[in-house]
Task: inverse folding
């Protein structure tokens, strides 16, 4: 203290020291002395001190040093110290010795006691010794039956005093602290009276100072005389119970209210009565030995446990792996923020320990039991108690979470304080899964048996090339290597230190998401395709917010663009549509084209799964043209489709891509060698044929032939044809050799997810793993859990290799007109062709005879009807079975209607022929099991109304309605349907439009799709072309009726009617 | 019974009844009637003024059929050696959990283990009772009923407090704890570094320790600040006696006009530091 005092002395000028001495008798008011060293230059500030004292100092000696001192009575000293306590900054130029300073603080505590009215009226016999009075006070409250005689009873003279009641905990602990300080800074001579143990006299001396201050202040506040005694008594809560008590009380009260003067504070009273009242007063006060005399800290300190993450521990005896955490023990004050680590206690030579300003005496008497109590809920603490000097417990990293979640709540419940950094979770946004792709190695490709498959000029990107990769997890910028992360998971230590604080990492989420990569990393280095799939799986499995970063080593920079396209679904660079393409492509179709080209660039097959009607055919044709124009073609292309679509393909190809040289590998004579012995296929191939069209059925039969060829692109249309991998068709298709494999389908999954696998097994073999794995990984969980993460994962995984746009996609929707037309091409069956030819022959045979104009006109019109009927169905002209097999057009209609029905949409089918309407109804009944209504002119108005009502309003009504063009053409509102099929043509677009408007009118919420059927190679096709080319012209050109046809000359008629057999004929398999 | 005693001692007892059993052995030789009477007296609270003296456990048995002044009994004490004390302290220093049990007055197998390791017996040999016990009753049969009573009484004391039991064998609580603490002393250097630089780990100002007191003298200490500025303390008049149901005390009635002046003069921390306080 003195050393620090000297510092102040130099800094602040006057160093004031002082002391108050009390006599042995408890009522002694004490004498005080203050002094400054005479050697210092005290004069300048001394005046100020003198002003405070009110007197000039006297010269004297203190501790053998010359001093200037002031002497004063105890009351004056209290006043001085109290004033000083009010000066929060002290007196300028004056600093106090620690000893004197403590008086100030005692006085301050006394004022707090007064301010809180935490005081007791007290009295004790005059002339009693202070230690006895104090001890008795402690006995008074503690003892059930205190010995009143020991208090010095009987009738006599007592001295009244206000003393602290110590019923407020905060004041009590401050008192204890001051006592503790007093033991250090007050010299023993302050209390010269009794030779007590140092720790006891310190308390005794401080208590006495506090008593004096409390009494002095209380009297200041009670007034010099106080109100008349009688009023005061009645006004108080005092109840008189004994004779003489009132008198005693009055005397006592007077003495209590007396000014701070010695004489008036004494009064005569009956000792027993007085003692009894005081005893009762003490009962409710804080006067308890346990509260006032406990210097161990047990009552007002507690144990605190700090959970400290590893890192700032300097102990280096850590095992490899996650370092241990530490639970450090502290002793902390209940009221003020002071604490000390228990390690310090174990360094104290004696059983006394300074915590803050307070010395705790024998604190182990409560610390050890408290630790033991904590150990009952915290095994780590219990364990630490089995070793010498426990000050901390070690918690293995993998147990930290358990400790936090299980043990800490128990400890808190037991009243212990546990401090730990709030282990906040790392925000998911701050987490990145980082995959670093290293060097790539080109896989050695085994040459195909055809030998034509060598990679030449095209910069084929090989998705089957092997890549090395590694992954890390970046958490808020902190890179966690795979090894460390794996050990975090293994040891269940989900935390990481970030800028000095520890955070929880959502390990479980991440680990689940990383599963695909871990599988990949275990086996042989995967190829890029597998890696892509894995990355997409990871992405699908990642909780919202976590990012996936793919980084490429310099050696793998070439993969950047590819990966970006694959992973981020970024559209590949746009392509200019091939100039040879006839017609215009919508922008989504151009995107589709670019996508196909990009897939090729990456060596990936793909599935184009756009909705029906979005133009898959057109996109493929554009793609093939593009290849040709770009000089990328490496051989002929092969297209497989169902027989019913062959004609359509050919027609569309001729229409949109006339630059492609087609060869239809189809028909009975396809394998008949020509004169030079060449097979037609070989001949076509030798003549630079671009595209070979064939059917699945033919492909199965001629597989040997087809597998001899290394195809450039193999396209399979209606790819659900190979949905069952065990079928001959599927097997056959897999045997074809191709640079690029494409599958087209409007319904990638008809019934089972395995169908998808089968299709992808053709386009990108192995991408969806083995069938077993696919079933296990996707099918089972999707089927059992519905739309869950597995479904999302599959969706994600398919992104790069499957392109599906639907009519309802916002982007597509914008591009599509509300109503758009598709011409559906169909061929003729042999029977139809024969009948068709016969009808024409009959006409021209007749026309060549000289006939009148009316007769000519009639013949032509009749022929027109006949021809149309033949194209519709042979039974209309020649009777017989209504089987769909006899009409290619009907089969096509049924296929299309199937798609409509599967989509949950509804359709109208218009025909001019009532007979055809019946045929369609029967065919639908056979195909779907339900028979649609047929609305025709033969029905009554009521019947028609019922049919329309049913179709529009009843959900269970068949989704198809067949109408005769005349009956259904006007006035009906059939907006339930959004597909309109014109099964046969009315050569007047206006009539067709009117019929179409049955559905395309107010109330229609879907886009309307109009399908017009055309039999290729027949007059239907020719008239369709005609209408198309003249559509812009007014109705006068193409009149209301079909009459204009009859005005044609014979040659024109012949051209119009003639059957172009090669294009018309459709071969049955 | 005598044969049984040695076997019991060597047995690692897990029951707190172990102490009782051992003590039962001490008076096992008592004649059945005297033992019964003794137990009865002990239960009835006839054993008074029980205290440890230099060489004996002394008590006065008072009760029906006994002299009014009671019968003074002295049972011999067991004295353990300095080495035993030190060994025990050392053991307990290494097992703070055992020491904690002692401080919470709980007998555990750990304590028993410690005593066995320190080779301390808490119990007099039955033969000692026979030879050294004194009783004022004059009964020629030993142990007499009074001795049995005191033994039983002491047994209940010992059962509830291991430290009491140790006191009986001459190991004072304070000296034991001091020895144990000295044995636990940790060398300063090694552990001190461990806590270096971790001051105020959680925003707690442990620097309070290092305040240069004279520099901030007059100003409030952290502790004072915590108490004097806490609203819970000042203004907690509900806690004071004025509001209580006490009807037999004198309560201070401060003069309001004086109080105001006084507050401004002395409660300056309140008026200075917190301008908006109650007035």
Result:
């Amino acid at each position: 203290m003195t050393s620090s005092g000297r510092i102040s002395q130099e800094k602040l000028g006057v160093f004031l020291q002082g002391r108050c001495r009390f006599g042995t008798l408890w009522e002694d008011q004490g004498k005080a002395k203050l002094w400054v060293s005479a050697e210092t230059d005290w004069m300048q500030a001394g005046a100020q001190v003198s002003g405070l004292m009110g007197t000039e100092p006297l010269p004297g000696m203190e501790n053998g040093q010359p001093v200037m001192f002031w002497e004063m009575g105890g009351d004056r000293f209290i006043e001085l110290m109290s004033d000083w306590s009010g000066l929060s900054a002290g007196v300028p130029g004056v600093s106090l010795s620690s000893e004197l300073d403590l008086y100030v603080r005692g006085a301050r505590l006394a004022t707090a006691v007064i301010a809180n009215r935490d005081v007791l009226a007290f009295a004790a016999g005059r002339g009693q010794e202070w230690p006895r009075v104090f001890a008795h006070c402690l006995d008074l409250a503690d003892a059930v039956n205190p010995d009143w005689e020991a208090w010095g009873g009987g009738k006599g003279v007592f001295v009244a005093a206000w003393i602290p009641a110590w019923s407020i905990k905060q004041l009590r602990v401050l008192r204890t602290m001051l006592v503790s300080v007093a033991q250090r800074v007050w010299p023993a001579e302050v209390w010269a009276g009794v030779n007590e143990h140092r720790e006891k006299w310190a308390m005794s001396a401080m208590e006495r100072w506090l008593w004096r201050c409390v009494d002095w202040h209380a009297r200041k506040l009670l007034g010099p005389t106080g109100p008349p005694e009688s009023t005061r008594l009645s006004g108080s809560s005092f109840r008189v119970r004994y004779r003489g008590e009132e008198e005693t009380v009055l005397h006592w009260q007077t003495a209590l209210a007396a000014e701070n003067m010695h004489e008036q504070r004494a009064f005569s009273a009956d000792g027993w009565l007085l003692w009894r009242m005081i005893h009762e007063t003490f009962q409710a006060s804080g006067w308890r030995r346990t509260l006032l005399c406990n210097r161990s800290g047990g009552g007002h300190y507690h144990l605190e446990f700090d959970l400290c993450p590893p890192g700032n521990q300097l102990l280096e005896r850590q095992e490899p792996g996650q370092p241990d955490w530490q639970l450090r023990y502290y002793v902390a004050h209940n009221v003020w923020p002071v604490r000390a680590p228990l390690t310090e206690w174990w360094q104290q030579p004696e059983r006394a320990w300074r915590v803050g300003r307070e010395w705790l005496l024998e604190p182990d008497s409560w610390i050890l039991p408290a630790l033991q109590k904590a150990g009952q809920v915290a095994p780590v603490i219990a364990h630490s108690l089995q070793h010498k000097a426990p000050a901390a417990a070690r918690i293995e990293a993998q147990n930290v979470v358990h400790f936090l979640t299980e043990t800490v709540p128990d400890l808190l419940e037991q009243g212990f304080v546990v401090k730990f950094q709030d282990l906040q979770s790392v925000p998911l946004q701050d987490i990145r899964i980082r995959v670093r792709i290293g060097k790539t190695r080109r896989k050695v490709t085994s040459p195909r048996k055809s030998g034509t498959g060598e990679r030449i000029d095209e910069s084929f990107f090989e998705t089957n090339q092997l890549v090395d990769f590694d992954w890390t997890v970046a958490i808020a910028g902190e890179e966690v290597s795979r090894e460390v992360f794996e050990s975090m998971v293994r040891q269940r230590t989900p935390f990481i230190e970030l800028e000095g604080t520890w955070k929880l990492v959502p390990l479980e989420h991440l680990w689940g998401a990383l599963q695909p990569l871990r599988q990949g990393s275990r086996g042989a280095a995967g190829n890029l395709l597998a890696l892509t799939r894995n990355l997409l799986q990871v992405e699908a499995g990642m909780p919202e917010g976590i990012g996936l970063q793919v980084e490429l080593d310099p050696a793998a920079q070439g993969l950047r663009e590819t990966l970006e396209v694959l992973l981020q679904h970024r559209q590949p660079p746009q392509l200019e549509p091939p100039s040879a393409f006839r017609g215009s492509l919508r922008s989504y179709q151009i995107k589709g084209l670019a996508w196909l080209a990009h897939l090729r660039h990456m060596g990936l097959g793909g599935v184009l799964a756009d909705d029906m009607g979005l133009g898959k055919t057109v996109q493929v044709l554009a793609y093939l043209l593009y290849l040709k124009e770009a000089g990328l073609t490496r051989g002929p292309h092969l297209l497989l489709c169902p027989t019913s679509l062959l004609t359509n393909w050919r027609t569309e190809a001729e229409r949109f891509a006339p630059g492609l040289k087609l060869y239809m590998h189809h028909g009975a004579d396809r394998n008949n060698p020509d004169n030079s012995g060449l097979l037609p296929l070989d001949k076509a191939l030798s003549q630079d044929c671009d595209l070979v069209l064939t059917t699945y059925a033919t492909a199965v039969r001629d597989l040997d032939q087809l597998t001899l060829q290394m195809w450039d692109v193999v396209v399979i249309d209606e790819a659900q044809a190979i949905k069952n991998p065990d079928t001959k068709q599927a097997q056959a298709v897999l045997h074809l050799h191709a640079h690029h494999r494409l599958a087209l389908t409007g319904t990638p999954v008809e019934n089972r997810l395995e169908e998808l696998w089968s299709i992808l097994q053709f386009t990108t073999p192995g991408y969806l793993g083995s069938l077993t794995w696919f079933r296990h990984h996707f099918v089972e969980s999707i089927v059992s859990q519905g739309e869950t993460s597995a479904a999302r994962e599959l969706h994600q995984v398919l992104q790069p290799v499957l392109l599906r746009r639907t009519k309802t996609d916002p982007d597509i929707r914008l591009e599509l007109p509300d109503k758009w037309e598709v011409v559906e091409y169909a061929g003729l069956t042999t029977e139809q062709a024969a009948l068709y030819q016969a009808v024409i022959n009959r006409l021209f045979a007749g026309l060549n005879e000289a006939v009148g104009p009316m007769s000519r006109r009639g013949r032509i019109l009749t022929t027109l009807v006949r021809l149309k009927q033949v194209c519709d169905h042979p039974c209309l002209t020649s009777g017989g079975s209504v089987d769909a097999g006899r009409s290619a057009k009907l089969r096509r209609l049924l296929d299309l209607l199937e798609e409509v029905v599967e989509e949950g949409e509804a359709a109208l089918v218009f025909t001019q022929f009532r007979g055809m309407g019946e045929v369609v109804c029967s065919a639908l009944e056979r195909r779907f099991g339900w028979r649609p209504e047929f609305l025709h002119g033969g029905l009554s108005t009521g019947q028609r109304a019922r049919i329309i009502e049913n179709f529009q309003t009843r959900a269970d009504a068949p989704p198809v309605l067949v109408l005769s063009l005349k009956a259904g053409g006007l006035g009906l509102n059939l907006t339930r349907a959004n597909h309109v099929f014109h099964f046969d043509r009315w050569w007047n677009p206006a009539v067709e439009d009117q019929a179409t408007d049955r559905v395309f009118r107010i109330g229609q919420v879907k886009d309307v799709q109009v399908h017009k059927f055309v039999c290729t190679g027949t007059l239907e096709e020719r008239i369709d072309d005609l209408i198309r080319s003249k559509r812009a012209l007014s109705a006068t050109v193409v009149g209301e009726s079909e009459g204009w046809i009859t005005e044609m000359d014979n040659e024109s008629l012949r051209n119009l009617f003639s059957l172009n057999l090669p294009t018309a004929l459709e071969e049955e398999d | 019974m005598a044969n049984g005693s040695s076997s019991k001692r060597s047995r690692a007892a897990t029951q707190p009844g172990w102490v009782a059993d051992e003590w039962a052995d001490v008076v096992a030789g008592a004649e059945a009637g005297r033992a019964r009477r003794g137990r009865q007296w002990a239960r009835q609270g006839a054993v008074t003024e029980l205290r440890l003296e230099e060489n004996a456990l002394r008590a006065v048995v008072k009760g029906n059929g006994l002299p009014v002044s009671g019968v003074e009994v002295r049972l011999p004490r067991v004295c353990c050696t300095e080495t035993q004390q030190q060994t025990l302290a050392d053991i307990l220093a290494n097992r703070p959990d055992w020491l904690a049990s002692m401080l919470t007055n709980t007998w555990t197998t750990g304590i028993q283990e410690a005593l066995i390791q320190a080779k301390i017996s808490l119990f007099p040999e039955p033969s000692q009772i026979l030879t050294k016990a004194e009783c004022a009753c004059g009964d020629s049969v030993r142990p007499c009923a009074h001795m049995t009573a005191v033994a039983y009484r002491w047994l209940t004391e010992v059962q509830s407090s291991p430290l009491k039991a140790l006191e009986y064998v001459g190991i004072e609580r304070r000296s034991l704890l001091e020895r144990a603490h000295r044995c636990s002393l940790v060398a300063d250097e090694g552990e001190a570094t461990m806590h270096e630089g971790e001051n105020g780990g959680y925003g707690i100002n442990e620097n309070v320790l290092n305040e240069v007191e004279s520099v901030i003298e007059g100003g409030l200490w952290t502790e004072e600040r915590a108490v004097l500025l806490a609203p819970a303390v000042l203004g907690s008049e509900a806690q004071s006696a004025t509001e209580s149901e006490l009807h037999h005390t004198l309560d201070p009635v401060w003069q309001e006009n004086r109080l105001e002046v006084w507050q401004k003069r002395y409660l300056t921390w309140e008026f200075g530091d917190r301008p908006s306080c109650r007035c």
Q: What stands out?
A: The two ends of chain B are 79 Å apart (CA to CA).
